Structures are given as C-alpha cells and as structure tokens.
Amino acid sequence: MFSRILVANRGEIALRVIRACREMGIQTVAVYSTADAKGSWLRYADESICIGPAPSSKSYLSIPAILAAAEIADVDAIHPGYGFLSENAHFAEICRASKIAFIGPTSEAIRTMGDKSAARRAAEKAGVAVVPGSKGKITGEDEAIKTAREIGYPVLVKASAGGGGRGMRVAHNDMSLRSAIQSAQAEAQVAFGDSSVYLERYLDRPRHVEVQILADTHGNVVHLFERDCSVQRRHQKMVEESPSPALPKPVRKRMLQSAVRLMKTAGYTNAGTVEFLVDRDNSFYFIEVNARIQVEHPVTELVTGIDLVKEQIRLAAGEKLGYDQDDVVFRGAAIEVRVNAEDPEQGFRACPGRITEWSPAGGPGVRVDSHAHQGYVVPPNYDSLIAKLIVHKPDRRQALLALDRCLDEFTISGIKTTLPFFRRVIRHAGFASGHYDTGFVEDLLAGTES
Ligand code: MV4
C-alpha cells in the first residue's frame, strides 16, 4: 500500500481524499494555489505545497508544478480528484514514467474513453447498445448526409474529444447538417485541439442514468448500481439520486450488466462511470465513460456502504476487489443536491465572496461534504461548488422529506447559493413523482411546469 499520497485538487474533493487517506493510515500532501492559501482542507493534510498563482492553468492544471511538488514531497501516488488533470492521459503517462502511481485508470483507458467515438466502438464491441449513428468519425459532409438519412433526422453532431455538451449541434435536414458539422468542428478545434466529430440520432428529452463501476487489475469488475442525473442545467448536474426513480427493474438490470460488460471488455481498471441515455420507451443507449471519481459519488457510497475513494486507492495499489457482485448490496434511496455559490435569480451567475454565516443541515441519514465554513471566502477562480448535501433514507419518499427539512435547516449568508432553487425543485410534482427528464430544469425555469 502507498505510504504518501499527493492530492492534486482543491476544495471539497481534496478534503474528501485527505479524509480517506487519514483513515487508511496514509500520509497526505496537499497542493494549493495562492488563491487557496487559507483553504481549510490544507490543515487536514500532513504537508502542503504552493504550486502557483490563482489561474488553474498555472496551478492545478500545471503538470510541471504538480510533478515538482510530488518529487519534492517524495510521494508514491497522486490522487487527481475530479476535473483538472483527472482525465488527462498525458499526465497519467508522465506519472507512470516518474514511478508515481496515478490513482485512476491507465493512461490508455483514459485516452480511449476520452475519445467518445472510440468509446462508442468499445461499447459496440462489448455488445452494448449505442445511439444509432455514424460508424466512427465523419470523414466528409456528403458521407455524413448519407448516414444522417439512414438513421433519420434530427441528428446530433458530437465532438469526439467533447464532453459537457461542448462541440454538440443538432441538425434537422441536409442543409443544417452541413453547417452543424462545420460549427461543431470549429468549436471542437478551439476547445479541444481536435476537430473530429461523429453523428448520433438526436433523442428528445432523454433521461441521463449512469452506472458506477469498480475494477481491479486482476480482471474483476463490479457495478455499484446507478445514479439518475437528469436534473441538469446547461450540462451542469444539479441533483443526483439512486436508485433512478423511473427505471423499470428489468431495464435497470440490463443496464447494469451492460456497463460491467463494457468495462470488462475494455480492460478498464479503478473507478469509472458508464453513462447512458434513456429514451421515453425505456430503451437505453451508451454515450460515454467518465474515467474518474465523480462529484456525485457520495450517492453511491450511501446506498452501497462502499467507500469509493478508499477503493480507488486500494485498486491503484494493485489490490484485488475482494468481493463479488452479489456482495454489493443496495439499501434505501439517496439524493444529492449541489450547493453552488451562484445566484439562481440572476441566471445562476457565480457569486464568490465571504460566507458570513454557515450553518449546515444535519441529523439522521444526512451527509454534507464541504470545505466551506463561516468566514470562508469563495474565490472567483474555480468552479462554484461549495457543498454537497446528501440524504439517505429507507425509501425515496422519506429521502425527499429529509431533504426538504435539510433545505430549510441549511443556512448560508453573505453569498447567494443554489439552496432556494432546490426547494423549488423537490417540491415540484414532476420531481416528486420521479418522472423527470433532462428537460426538467429548463421547464421549471421557463415556468412551463407540466
Ligand atoms: C445526446 C442527447 C440527445 N441525443 N445524444 C449532453 C452532454 C453529453 N454528455 C451528451 N448529451 C446529450 N447527448 C443524443 N444522441 C442529449 C444530450 C443532452 C443531455 C444529456 C444528459 C444530460 C443532460 C442533457 C441535456 C441536454 C442534452
């Protein structure tokens, strides 16, 4: 097992990883930018090293800065958290070359899964349904038009290197397809330095359900059930829950099996998530793999009792899973809301600044993952997540009641947060019934609540 881990991240996830390490008897080295010099999580680490100025490009995204810190601190492994360098195949490769374990999948797996069209191919090879679309990347507009006519309009042009909705364009006919390809390619070139795109049939208001996977380096793969992440705004998840409330049992079972089959076939290791879109008729289609620990991982931890971060560390050290699928037991229902320093009344614009009052919710079945506290100044340089509020109860109805109570309890003053917005969400009949899709937030904000 590792004796010293560098945590290449900040905020709540840095704290989450440090806590796991401490419970495992592993020393921790935190790194921070000058904007985070007072970060509460630094005090929980055995050592902390400043790696650069506020802009992430010069600190949390700087491979030389982080590797220098790792060498100086003499760590045996790096945990990248989520975002930043967590899905950077080049970084994972350099870690390996420097004899430092990267706590995540291999650089090869990150590279394959980072190329959405290659990931699609991997899914097809594993016999997992993908959205009907192009065979690999588009090579020309005329050929794309031929494919689009075969699969039927509307189609979606997607950037191979994409994610988070960037480099995506809908096309309804041959003519709009030509311009969709051009603008998706241009956007992808600027955003990712890779202009390649592929085609998929456009699904109208699908649900977004993802399956959590753990895989060891000895060929064992298990799923830890699913999370429904359909409550999103502009590709930012806002609420995540498990189980998915409107997924019929047999469909769920097939989805979970599909996810395991894909990751086994791909030789994937460590923690990962297989994302699916679910159509109105409950057909599900693979879309992508997230090769990292995700923001919403606590939802899965609560319904399975498995500590995903500890598992990541164990698996990266080469240990066996040590349990079978049947040993992974699902219990109750969990819901997470992301508390962001944003103003819901002003189009969710970022609201950095000083927190003058911090009084988190608590009680039975309540978990708050946060690095924030009274007097904490939310810096303007990074993403606006300040807390995750997660509730776990014997069933969804009770989880919603507890969440409602927690949203009343949770008090944050000095900055605007998304807390008031969640009060609207969970009291909405469409959310309460569980019959919501990826159009839910847009409807709620437009006032066209159905
Ligand atoms: C789609 C889709 C409809 N049809 N693919 C958005 C981000 C990326 N992860 C995939 N996304 C979508 N892909 C096909 N073929 C609709 C979306 C989508 C979406 C997906 C998941 C959660 C929220 C979403 C919001 C808008 C669009």
* General form: globular
The CATH topology label of the largest domain is D-amino Acid Aminotransferase, Chain A, domain 1
Question: Which architecture of the largest domain would the CATH scheme give at its second level?
Answer: 2-Layer Sandwich
Cα-based radius of gyration, to the nearest Å: 21 Å
Characterise this structure.
With 450 residues, the protein is of the alpha+beta class. The chain folds into three domains: 4-103, 3-Layer(aba) Sandwich (Rossmann fold), CATH 3.40.50; 132-201, Dna Ligase, domain 1 (2-Layer Sandwich), CATH 3.30.1490.20; 207-446, 2-Layer Sandwich (D-amino Acid Aminotransferase, Chain A, domain 1). It has helices at residues 11-23, 63-73, 89-97, 107-114, 116-125, 141-151, 174-192, 249-266, 297-304, 308-316, 396-409, 419-427, 429-433, 440-446, and strands at residues 4-7, 27-33, 47-52, 77-79, 101-102, 155-163, 166-171, 197-201, 207-215, 221-233, 236-242, 270-278, 284-290, 333-340, 342-343, 349-350, 353-354, 357-359, 366-370, 377-378, 385-393, 411-413. It has an eight-stranded antiparallel β-sheet with strand order 13-12-9-10-11-14-21-19, with helices on both faces. Strands 3-2-1-4-5 form a five-stranded parallel β-sheet. Strands 7-6-8 form a three-stranded antiparallel β-sheet. Strand 15 and strand 16 form a beta hairpin. Helix 3 (89-97) runs antiparallel to helix 4 and helix 11 runs antiparallel to helix 12. The longest helix has 19 residues, at 174-192. The N and C termini lie far apart (53 Å). Ligand MV4 is lined by residues 131, 156, 165, 200-203, 206, 208, 232, 235, 277, 287-288, 438.
